[in-house]
Amino acid sequence: MTPEDQKQLEARRKSRNKALGLVLVGLVILFFALTIVRFPDEEDRAAYEAELEASR
Length: 56
Description:
It is built from two helices and no strands. It is an all-alpha fold and about 55 residues long.
């Protein structure tokens, strides 16, 4: 393998690693957001409505 081929291979590998890193960071952010802002279930909605009624 020539030095030029080696440089091209390293450049492609670096580019691929950056793309994979961005995907992983995106997944971490998505999972974090879903953990913090979880989807409310029936109990949560009932408690929220009870709070609203109590404050009126």
